[in-house]
Amino acid sequence: MTTAVADQTAAGVILAKLEFECASSYQEAIMAAKERFILISGGGRSGKSYIVIKKFWIRYFEDMAAHPNDGSGKRGSDPMRYWLIGESYGETEKEFAYLSDDLIEIYGEGVVKPSKRVDPGEIVVQMPDQDAPHMIIETKSAQDVRKMSKDGPHGIIMCEAGQQDFIVLERAQERLTEKFGWLMLPGTMEGSIGWFPSLIGQWASGVGGRKSYRMPTYSNKFLFPGGRQDPKILELERISSDDFFMERVEGLPVPPRGLVFPEFRPDVHIQRVERTIGEPVYVWVDPGYSGSYYAVVLANIISGQVRIFGEIYEKGMITEQIIEHCMNQDWWKEDLFGVIDVAARSHNYRAPVVDVWINHKGAGLYMKTNRVLIPEGIERVKSFLRIDDISHQPRLIIDPRCSGIISEFGAGPNPDDDKLRAYTWGTDRNGNVVGKVPEDKYNDAIKAMTYGLIDRFGFTHSAKRRKIIVRRH
User: Fold this and answer.
1) With a cut of 70, which residues of the chain have pLDDT below it?
2) Is residue 2 part of a domain?
């Protein structure tokens, strides 16, 4: 067993008094986490509620340092304030009890005054030498988000976050803005669809002070001393479906059935990507037709690895608006190589889209086109989802801020409505794939990328690379 409290920080001393030790590498990672928002995807009986309350002590002393008192040793009229939010008040009961027990153990019963009920509940920490409470911990019900409007907290724990609506997460983030507070999201998946499992993949590599962590059932060494090889875990694996074991024991979302690209792995293909200054920028475009997204995928290609650092993913915008948006970006100053859907050469009732990219406000961006059949495009993308045999790195990585294309791969929520809307094959009610081509929706950014990959690298059956035409007239 490795201890998480070897240092003599204030939090370390408290955790030592509580006789807390990390029992697994999963717990160690959570206790060491520095991100402001952390999501903890747990298997059943993994002890996620317990570890969140131990992590609370680290957050609490960080808050004390960030919000010092007035120098007199008293906090004055502004106590440290924290919320426990559950789908119902009852979902906060476990965390409420753990916190009460820890606070009483450290400060004593006369100082710590927990309410007898949690609907709503309150823990008040009233230091003897202070006129006002030092700390207030309140329970909140997600069923009435209107009561989340007063006194912005320093931190929030959303208990069993996966059971709550996305609007609760939004309200929690809003209320934390005032004090730049922290958020912990422990939860067990209730199926792999919805905002909670989507964020597991989206935050896996860490983005914008947000990161997801995992606590599988077997990380609870008290109940399962053998860890992954514990006989009880192995027996559960034997009698369970693969999907059930993945979600409810491993704490991992199961990809939606019928994905066109099940090879896409958030933990591998979603990585932080910054534009490499001075390198050519590949501008790959699928114009928005008939209410679909106008998708622009932006990439550098370094040593054969495609690095998608940005995207424009908009509905309702015309080409001129997209071009003006592009011209205001720093990357527009680089050497640009454009590729667009072959349909952009057609006239219809207005100028061809390729001409607009050249002429509008002197943009001058020449767009190449290639006719790409759906099976050819799918095979080319799949080839880039494989791990390179020589470098042992993925040939394609996407920055987590590119939420549009990530959602089309099925690894995140749609950026407009936070629902899972991935590029999929048609399936019957048993989940079996039907049809010879996928459904032509939720694929705008993937199509843009496909045109670009084939233009730059050719078709999978061809070793002949095509020439690249320079960017501008």
Assistant:
1) 1-8, 69-77, 145-147, 149, 191-194, 347-349, 461-473
2) no
Report the alpha-carbon distance of residue 389 to residue 123 in Å, rounded: 56
Q: Are 213 and 37 in contact (CB under 8 A)?
A: no
Same domain, 190 and 336: no
Q: How far apart are CA 438 and CA 444, in angstroms?
A: 13
Give the whole-angstrom CA distance, residue 138 versus residue 148: 10
Q: Please state, in angstroms and rounded to a whole number, the distance separating the CA atoms of residues 67 and 65.
A: 6
- DSSP letters along 332-385, please? GGS-EEEEEEGGGG--TTS--HHHHHHHGGG--B-EEEE---HHHHHHHHHHHH
Is residue 465 a part of any domain in this protein?
A: no
Predicted confidence (pLDDT) per residue in 406-416, tens digit? 999 988 778 88
- Per-residue pLDDT tens digits for 130-162: 877 899 999 999 887 666 767 789 999 999 998
Domain that holds residue 395: 269-457
Residue 361, CB half-sphere, CA atoms under 13 Å: how many? 10
The answer to whether 420 touches 410, Cβ cutoff 8 Å, is yes
Tokens 């933990």 belong to which residue?
267
Residue 69 carries which side chain, given as an amino acid letter?
A: N
Q: Using CA atoms, how far apart are residues 404 and 360, in angstroms rounded to an integer?
A: 26
Phi-psi region of 107 (alpha: psi -120 to 50; beta: other; left: phi over 0): alpha
Q: Which of 375, 61, 57 is nearest to 383 (CA)?
A: 375
Q: What's the CATH number where 206 sits? A: 3.40.50.300
pTM score above 0.90? no
